[in-house]
Amino acid sequence: MFGTYEGFQQRLARSSASIVPGTFARQGLLPNGSPVPDLKPQMLKYANAFWPAPSTPDRPDGTAVAYANPGETIGENFGLARFDHILSSTDSFAANLTVGRTRGEEAAGATRISKL
């Protein structure tokens, strides 16, 4: 009988910065504070639901930056077992069992931007 196991586990937090709608945009206002013409108020809930809250003040173009530190979990496990048995000089029996499991999770809001 022979067996082997390989495993890799990683628990890591990665910093990320995302460009998101600024505070004025989330209220339906232009960067100068005036209302957006013909804006349907029902659309504002999407600006607040789909993007994380800004971490910085509004930039001149109405956007802001949201910094996050989402966790990332990776686990890979692989196992192998083999059984060999000689029944007679002409007969033999062999069995193999291979098991593998991979788990990877990345936190929501983990948008990565290479340049700001």
How would you characterize the overall build of this protein?
With 116 residues, the protein is mainly beta. The chain has one domain. 9% of the residues lie in helices and 47% in strands. It has a three-stranded antiparallel β-sheet with strand order 1-4-5, with no helix packed on it. Strands 2-3 form a two-stranded antiparallel sheet. A hairpin with a 5-residue loop joins strand 4 and strand 5. The protein is rod-shaped, with a radius of gyration of 27 Å. The relative contact order is 0.29.
Count of spatially separate domains: 1
Oligomeric state of shown chains? single chain
| Cα-based radius of gyration, to the nearest Å | 27 Å
Mean pLDDT: 84
3D shape:
rod-shaped
N-end to C-end Cα span: 57 Å
User: Using DSSP, what is the number of strands?
Assistant: 5
Poorly predicted runs: 106-116
**Proportion of β residues?**
over 45%
Question: How many individual helices?
Answer: 2
Structural class: mainly beta
User: Would you list the SSEs in sequence order as H and E?
Assistant: EEHHEEE
The share of residues in helices is under 10%
